[in-house]
């Protein structure tokens, strides 16, 4: 992983970082929107202050920092509920020794939520996804088990008009075979039609 600032002082030296405020369980916390950070992070002090549950990765994550060199950590707050601009997000936050910063939201969160950074005005906005996301049945089951809100839209396709037989390429080549007034399946025949196959012939 990589992060470009571990403190407010370092963040103030960069024009590409945007500082703001978000809420965790109605508690205000200082957040830094960092497009140079590969992951999202939370300070150990914030975790202890808000008594957030901590999990541990099955591996050690090495995070490159601008001043303190590489930092190794395996602590993480999974699906931490964060409220930004009256929108709630469940974010996986890796624990780091941040100074005067509570949370850093990196590219993993910025890209997945279509966040646009305005570095000139020091503001963020949420873009809209151009296409919907298709969820597999297994993913929907996982969301339901985790008590997430799931919305489902069922749609069907209807034809505006009946197609003429002449519009079908294969049918148009044999007009004498297909009657013009055919609107349903042919009637049942008294004698079933079948083709007997002789063994050994293909």
Automatic annotation (TrEMBL):
Pfam families: RVP_2
CDD domains with a match to the protein in the record: retropepsin_like
SUPFAM superfamilies (alphabetical): Acid proteases
Transmembrane segments: none
The protein's name in its UniProt record: RVP_2 domain-containing protein
Organism, as annotated: Cajanus cajan (Pigeon pea)
